[in-house]
Design goal:
With about 260 residues, this protein is α/β, with parallel strands linked by helices. The chain contains 9 helices and 10 strands. Strands 1-2-4-6-7-8-9-10 form an 8-stranded parallel sheet.
């Protein structure tokens, strides 16, 4: 069964696994900038990463039969303050690239002022460039998750950014209802520190009237074969009795429509 992975860090996958994903049915992927860089780095570190995503990663995926697109952002942590300011100035030019389909990951993790300031700056850029966004939120079991997800939605509303152009990623069960009521797309990230495949499948099964606002992604997966978490969700949905069109709604049609991907 074909699928689109709307949050896949291909720069952390080797070619063999990428080829296996293509064999498993991956037809397209959205590669976001990470929400964190390890260690203090200069602006050039991030600019080189953006160039790698837009050039090497897109072409590498294409060589495996996968259409890859990119969302760009400045990570919460890992750059010097001067580096952040320089990248904010440079980012608009990169957003013009034909393979850029959004901004992300942006958002909040613990909700401190430094995060919020950068979040607002990037929301303004996304609005100016008419781009949808992938929003990083605290991991599934993080104690601050219920508080921070409300803070995130408040900031988005304060910046007059349309919630129907937002994926609130990394959903946990304790914030699911709030996300579904927010008006945003709800990202079910099936990753080692996030949602297990069976739980994601249950969410889709139990929310038939919300399936137009659900997307499934693998992010970092579970390590080793973990990048195959979206196919595992597909299998779990099949075992729960969902029909092909119901499965492809959340694994193909929704991400295609949200990012306006030019694929058949």
């Amino acid at each position: 069964m074909r699928f689109i992975d709307p949050h896949l860090h291909t720069d952390m996958i080797d070619d063999v696994d990428l080829e296996k994903l293509a064999i498993a049915g991956l037809e397209a992927a959205v590669i976001p900038s990470p929400h964190m860089l390890k260690g203090l780095s200069s602006a050039e570190t991030l600019l080189r990463l953006w160039r790698r995503l837009l050039d090497f990663e897109v072409k590498s995926a294409k060589s495996m039969g996968i259409e890859a697109y990119v969302t760009l952002s400045i990570p919460f942590y890992g750059l010097t303050l001067d580096g952040v300011e320089q990248c904010l100035k440079e980012l608009p030019e990169y957003l013009k690239h034909e393979r850029v389909v959004g901004m992300g990951e942006i958002g909040l993790d613990v909700g401190i002022e430094d995060e919020a300031k950068l979040f607002r700056a990037q929301l303004k850029l996304a609005k100016e460039h008419n781009l949808p966004i992938i929003v990083h939120t605290p991991i599934r079991l993080a104690p601050q998750a219920p508080r921070v997800i409300k803070q995130i939605v408040n900031v988005i509303n304060e910046e007059n950014f349309s919630l129907d152009r937002v994926i609130l990623d990394h959903t946990g069960e304790n914030t699911l209802d709030f996300r579904l009521k927010s008006g945003a797309m709800v990202g079910l990230s099936v990753c080692h520190d996030k949602m297990p495949p069976e739980v994601a499948a249950e969410v889709v099964l139990k929310n038939p009237d919300k399936r137009d606002r659900l997307v499934v992604n693998s992010e970092l997966g579970y390590g080793n074969d973990g990048y195959f978490s979206v196919p595992r969700v597909i299998l779990a949905m099949r075992m729960l009795g969902l029909r092909r069109e119901e499965i492809e709604k959340v694994t193909f049609e929704n991400p295609k429509k949200f990012f306006n991907l030019p694929i058949e």
